[in-house]
């Protein structure tokens, strides 16, 4: 079975993050079990979604993980030329939701799993499939803590997010947070005697904007990124019920996308103290006024040295591939942080097409990924020589 045939089947599973991914996991698990893989599921609390880890080979800590997420972003509101959940080939392009992000890599991983099952492996091959990546790398965490509990380790993890088959050696981390502003509500005719929570919320966004300009002018820089510094922005403000009512509560949702060298908790503490300062002049009159910041979701930045063994290993299989730092987040930082496994990001297709209507992957990208994994498989065929 080739990668395109497998991709055709995978695209047909409607694994939008809000829905169950179990039909896809059932398919992948039976595919892998039939080929001798030992499979283990880690379910989410609802039981409607699962992570899957599947292994073949002699065991030990010197195997390789091929890691992918099974979920895709929604298609609602997007203008597709055809059914997004039916793979459509037009020339050299394969269209369908998830073709780039990242069922193309899942298909390539299943193809190489089939090939691996017909060899006597010197080192193990692991396939790790997660759920709910697209909503903030949520699902993989339970898989990683399960693996940690079982003292699982590996020599290398390949996260196959679309990098156009370049070697991804870094991405920014992300922290999403909510500032809730409490004021004093009442009739708008006496507005100046009250504390308008929407006004507080706009003060918070001013603090956020000042932070961004300070970071842009004085912060750390990494010119490998299009925006070479840590960013912070407000993406959503909610507050108020009617024009003639002064609102007593409003929220500002904001996110920090940070360089690996920047600690987002320090940024958050600075924000908290600057927002506290906003309230200081009003303490006497409005003791109930407050601004509370809560973290909604976070995943770590990912950074690996271009000279690290994980990168030179990949380069040996793909000498023509350069390195890149990607603008999107992945599960890579969590593999490093939770399991300490050397990790790189490399996969077929481009995130320029990820999440868009008429998402596609080039056939040539899938072939390049197949060739890359074929070379990886050769290296699994031989056991590493033990150090003397
Ligand atoms: Zn992805």
From TrEMBL:
Cofactor dependency: Zn(2+)
InterPro entries assigned to the protein according to its UniProt record, in alphabetical order: AcOrn-deacetyl, ArgE/DapE_CS, Bact_exopeptidase_dim_dom, Peptidase_M20, Peptidase_M20_dimer, Peptidase_M20A
Peptidase M20 dimerisation domain segment(s): 169-280
A Pfam family assignment: Peptidase_M20
PROSITE patterns: ARGE_DAPE_CPG2_2
GO molecular function, one term: acetylornithine deacetylase activity
Keywords assigned by UniProt, alphabetized: Amino-acid biosynthesis, Arginine biosynthesis, Cobalt, Cytoplasm, Hydrolase, Metal-binding, Zinc
EC number in record: 3.5.1.16
Family affiliation: Belongs to the peptidase M20A family. ArgE subfamily.
Protein's UniProt name: Acetylornithine deacetylase
